[in-house]
Design goal:
By secondary structure, the chain is an alpha/beta fold. The protein contains 19 helices and 12 strands. 48% of the residues are buried.
Amino acid sequence: MAGKVDPARLVAYDVLRAVHAQDAYANLALPALLRERSVTGRDAALATELVGGTLRGLGTYDAVLAAVVDRPPDDEVRDALRLGVHQLLATRVPSHAAVATTVDLVRRRVGHRPSGFVNAVLRKVGAHDLDGWLRRVAPDPDADPVGHAAVVHSHPRWVVERLAEALGERGDELDALLAADNDRPAVTLVARPGLSDVAELPGTPSISPLGVVLEGGDPGEVAAVREGRAGVQDAGSQLVALALARTEVEGPDRAWLDLCAGPGGKAALLGALASQCGARLVAAERQPHRARLVARAVGTTAGVVTADGARPPWAAGRFDRVLVDAPCTGLGALRRRPEARWRRTPDDLSALVPLQRALLESALDSTRPGGVVAYATCSPVVEETAGVVREVLAGRDDVDLADAVPLVPEAVDAAGVHLPGTVQLWPHRHGTDAMFLAVLRRL
């Protein structure tokens, strides 16, 4: 008879299986499962910690498991072992409880046959603490600094290499950046101008003048959030929207566009900012189901169209301000989407970079002379950021790169090192996602 498994660990395991077997997103799958099973309070908090912690530490935990097993376990067993290793090495759960609950979980979800194997493996893991294991499994930092950082900070090697390249001359900050990727992210709220005021939001001030850091609790319980007058949004995204609104334009300023609006967070803020200026935002999204999410987020502050931003249905030169929040690898938001580091590969860049260039070209074509385009990515990878902007600029004589740094005065030491005039935010330096921003002006 399998032992009783608490609901928090069952939820955590089932979310991990959904992430790895079905390509689910943990930030969507976890809340849905908690609601479906009515898991609340301390159990919900434990499940959240187990999911996030296990996904963030996956690379380290797999290296530890590889040192104690002589054959790769089945995927179902591997996810249970990862969950057990996280409890053993990175939580205050007593070792005996971490082992026993994981064994019971395997009996409940997989069957009795692998339970002895799981028990033996976890007892071997429990023989050393995390530092002891890192000394055993991480490559020598002098002989292989990238490999060492990859294991110690639980990032794929190629991601470490791309982040080191993105830091450029600030490469000595790599360990701090990788460590920040593994911090549990704070929940940041945004007050949408004209609809709410930052003073009515509970929490401490964030780097964004429109935001606060929620110190605890469910953001859905905040009245302004529940009523759609405020939202949950990383401070870096808030600063990108503010930068576009702060940019001077020549001539009329009535028509704004969010070219890639899904799921709607930036569009909701831009729509509110546009309304304050007497302008109107059009929010475009290619996928119908995401367009519906955008419509729900923006309410009456914007018009929503289902359209491919790379092949827009509107006339050229239609807009005064355009935001391109381009699809990207998401390697700047690993705090909030830890599974992205394991899901993305270098091959993704070969598809994303041409799309990013096409979207930026389309945005510029959609902007009238004297208007401006903000190009943003939630990734610091050079190919997706400075590389895209530099290549587009090289092919056009009707565009100039504006200096975006003064548009984000709240972010100290945020100048992009790969293309002067751009902005690069960092989680370890600014407490935000690693948002990139370039502002281009049609001549």
